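Continuing the series of single-chain predictions for the mutant panel. This is the parent chain; the variants come on the following pages.
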Amino acid sequence: MKNVDDWYERQRILGKAIQIGKDDVTGKSILLLDDLIQSGATLRRAAEVLLNDGKAKTIYALVLTRTR
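Parent structure:
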């Protein structure tokens, strides 16, 4: 996603790529890990899906990036 600059295109791609899986997350607290954050669109989409479709209780996000 780091090479997709257009916000609307990023949303379209993420809408197709990130969808609820078969595991039950209802009522669970979930930690999302990412190695890079630019706009936050990927984490936002994952959190929305888990909260709205998966009925997760809480979402936490952690981003770790090492720079040179």
